[in-house]
Amino acid sequence: ILLGDTLSKSEKESLLFINQCIDQGRFHKAIQESKRMADASADSKVFLYMLSRAYMRAGDNDFALEECDKLLARFAGFTDAQLLRACIIARQGDFENAEKEGIQILDRHPSMASAHYLLGDIYMLVKKYAEAEIEFRTALKLNDKNIDYKLGVARSIFMQGRKEEAISEIKKIVEKEPDNSPAYYWLISFLISSDRPKEALEIYKKVTATAFPDISIFLLMIETYKAQGKEDEAITEAQRVLIFYPDNQLALIALSNMYIENKDYEKAMEYAEKLVEANSEDGLSYEVLGSVYEARNDFKKAEETYRKGIENNPEYIALYGDWGWLYDQLAQYD
Description:
By secondary structure, the protein is an all-alpha fold. Helices cover about 75% and strands about 0% of the residues. The protein has helices spanning about 10-25, 25-40, 45-55, 60-75, 80-90, 95-110, 115-125, 130-140, 145-160, 165-175, 180-195, 195-205, 215-225, 230-245, 250-260, 265-280, 285-295, 300-310, 320-330.
């Protein structure tokens, strides 16, 4: 649907750019480009869909739902948007309604593989792993070439305790699809969870030696190292992300936060400033920079940073709380 004949060459290029930004964790750029193209393109439906999806992947589920509802108000019956809406409300924790909406879509389109896959994902969120497996396998029967559906089956059986079976299934996938980053992500994740860190690390080093490794694999290892108390290794991996993706928001945020924890405020400031430079209209960037100033007890600069963030992105609600609290604190000393 999203790469149909209705799109011009430049529109397809823009769409691919948006997808790349989302996959690389450059959510603000994906949102900016989606908004620009929604205004410029004759087929705004596609880019409005991408806007909602970009917000969801960035974790801004309220904005994602708002945009998705606007999309459905204009294009009633747009099934992909209906699926996206169910996914968003599931991420908001409204599993009951997400399941209802997924089932309603399946009632209308019983042979729609992506609807079965979505329902499987919802069941995963509510820990109904056996039901999830059924939906993933149904999706796979309808489209036996889809890697996501194969990975869904592996994820569901892993969570049912059939760990070796799941690892075996993932290994089959990477043997046939050696460039499939999501498969490697789940293989590494399963191995770590199965107390096989040495094997996981070997695969990780192999995968991240490629030209543009999947950002999610880096982030998985960063969080793994942090959980193990290996801060230096976590910092090293976050810095490696920036070699491939210099303005990656997630890596810059991780580095700034880790240096704050280590009380190396100069380094924390360096990465926070890079974050703002790369994403000057993104409220989250200013929140990160403001938190560095707070850690240094420079509350006036923190307050100024939050205020500037609000001016640049008045929709980013979290900044109002940060700024208001600091404003009240500073007022006591004026």
